Amino acid sequence: MRHIISLLMENEAGALSRVAGLFSARGYNIESLTVAPTEDPTLSRMTLVTVDSDDVVEQITKQLNKLIEVVKVVDLSDGVHIERELMLIKVRAVDRDREEIKRLVDIFRGRIIDVTDKSYTIELTGTSSKLDAFLNTIERSTILETVRTGASGIGRGERILKA
Amino acid sequence: MNTELTGAEITIRCLQEQGVDYIFGYPGGAVLFIYDELFKQDKVKHVLVRHEQAAVHAADGYARSSNKVGVALVTSGPGVTNAITGIATAYMDSIPLVIISGQVPTYAIGLDAFQEVDTVGITRPCVKHNFLVKDIAELATTIKKAFYIASTGRPGPVLVDIPKDVSQQKTGFSYPESVAMRSYNPITKGHSGQIRKAAQLILDAKRPMVYAGGGVILSDAALQLTELVRMLGFPCTNTLMGLGGFPATDKHSVGMLGMHGTYEANMAMQHCDVLIAIGARFDDRVIGNPKHFFNEERKIIHIDIDPSSISKRVKVDIPIVGSVSDVLDELIKLLHAHKGKPDQVALKTWWAQIDLWRARDCLKYDRASAIIKPQMVVEKLYQVTEGNAFITSDVGQHQMWAAQFYKFDKPRRWINSGGLGTMGFGLPAAMGVQFANPKELVACITGEASIQMCIQELSTCKQYGLPLKIVNLNNRYMGMVRQWQEFFHGNRYAESYMNALPDFVKLAESYGHVGMKIEQPSDIEGALKEAFGLKDRLVFMDFITDQTENVFPMVPGGKGLSEMILV
What we know:
A: alpha+beta, four-stranded antiparallel beta sheet, 4 helices, B: six-stranded parallel beta sheet, 20 strands, about 15% strand
C-alpha cells in the first residue's frame, strides 16, 4: 500500500543523507521525497512516499524515529490528510492543439504560466494521481518536458505535526 | 574568566571530564595536535596499537567488560578506513564507543586532499550517530553529546570527526554538565499496562520459556533476570550475546540456543506456549527460519529498548519498549504482589519434557580421542580457571565451542563479535578487557585463521606487559568454512585449508612472549596450568586439534530450530 510519511528533523548538513542512506541500506523503496526548512529554520520537514506492506512501513517509521536528528515522524496515511504535488509541464502547442490544451488545463484547474508561439508551460497542483491523470489525458507526443516536486502532505483539521 | 584552549586541548579536557582513563589509538598527520596534548598530561592514558582496527576492538573489549564507554583515536583517511571493521563490529553488538578521528583542515575538505576521506559518509551506516565538527565553538558540546548518545538508549558507537585546523584554533572552554536534545530522548521505563498484561500471560503459561539476549548484559540486568527465572522456576536460554546474563550452571539454564544451540534450548524454544524474550532480537542465527518458527503456536512477550527490534522478524503479542533492567524490576514487583502462581503441574510436565531433551546429551564428543578435541581444551580451560576468566573469542568453530563449553555464570565475562562475526576481534578485544580489569585472568580463544588477522597486536601486548593467555585451537582449516563445505558443498574444501602456517611458538617468542605447542590430549591440563602460572607473561598456547571436528548441534541455514543436525 502507498504510504505518505511526514517527518521533522534538525536542519543540519547531512540530515537528508541519513534518511536516504537508511532507505538504501535497508532496501526500502522511495517513490518520492521532498524536503525544505519550516517556519522554524532549525527544522526541516520532509515528506516521503513509499509503497510497501504495512509491516515494512512500520519498520520504516521505527527506523526513521531512531535517527538521532529526527524529531518526529508520522504516517499521514494513518488518518485523514491532504496531499499536494506540483508539476510543471512543457507541451508543444501549435494550430488547433493550442485551444484543446487550454481547455484541458482549465478542466484540471491548472495554469499556463509561459507561452511561446510553439509551446505552453503549464503549472498543475493536486494529488499525485490527479497529475498522473492529466498526463494520461493529453496527447503523449505533445509533451516536451515534465518536472514534479513529489508529494507534500499535511493532516486534516486538528491533526498537527510539531516539534 | 576562561582562558582560551586549542581544539586539541579541549578534546583531551573533555575526555578527562568524562572520566576516560584509557584511549586506544594510532597517531597520524590530522591528529598531531591532539597527540601533542595527550603527551602533556597523564590522566588519559593512551594505548598505542599496531593497526586502527585493533584500536577500536580494544576500546570495544574495554567497554564490554566494564560497562564504560570505550574510546578510540585515529587519524584521517586510512586511519578511519582501517577502523571501520571495528566500528561496524561494535555497532552490530550495540557497544558504547566514542571514536575520535582526525580530518583534513576544513578549507581542504572536498578537495581530495592527502589522507582525506568522507568519514561521516563512510561511517554513517555503521554508527549510532556521527558528527563533523566544523566550528570549534561546538567541539565540547559535540563530545558531550557523543558520550551521551553512545551510552544511553540502545548503546552504540558514535564518531566525532575533528578537522586539523579545528584542533589548532582556540576558544574558551567549559564542559557542559548535561545535554538535552529535542530529537533524542530514549525511553527507559516500560509501559505499565503492557507489563501488567505480560505478568498475567506469564502466570497463565503452561510451557514457558525465557529467551535472554545481549540486552540483559548491556542493561546490567543479570541479577534481575536471575531473580525472575528462579522465582518463576522457568527454563532460561541465552543467546550468544547473552551468555552470562543468567548463570550457565543454574539448573534452570538450558544453555545457548540458535544455530549451534543445545538440543534442549532449541526444542523448548520451538515448543513453548509463552515465550518471554528479553533484550534479544530473534535474529536469523537464533530462530532460524521464521516461517518454521511459527509452525508452533505460542504467545510472545518482547522486552527491548529499541522499538525497531520489536516485530522486525517475528510478530509479538505483548511488546514492551524500555530498558531491560527497569522493566524487569517492575515485572518482578508485580509478580511478587500477585497472589497467583503459574500452574505447577503443567510446569513439572514441561520440565520433564525438557529433561528428556537434555538426556539427548547433544554436546557429547569423543573424550577418548588420541587427537586433541577442541571441546576438551575449552572444558579444561573452564576447569583450570574455575570459570572465573574473562574470555574473548574470534569467529568460527572455536567461538561456538567456547560458547558451548565455557560456563559463564557472570555477565561481561564473555566477549565476542556476535553480530558482525569479525575474525581478528579476539586478541585486541582481550587487550581492552585486560586494561579494564588489570587483576583478572583474560584468555582469548581463537583459531589459527582468526588470530592471524590481528596478530600484530602481540607487539602491543609486549609494550604494555599484558599477561593474556591465548588458546589457539589450531586445526589448519578455517574450521567453520570447512564444516559448511563438508555439509553443503560436497566436501569441496575451496580455499579453506591453511598451509604455510607460521610456527606460532617461535612467532610468540619473537614478539617477546612465551609460546607452547600442545599435541597430546593428556598434556592439555598441564599446559594450561603452566600458562596460567606465568602470571605476568603472555602465553600463546598452540593446540594442534582434530582437523575434521564439527560443531554440533547445527541448524542449517534456512531450516527451523527443531531441524538440527545432531552428532
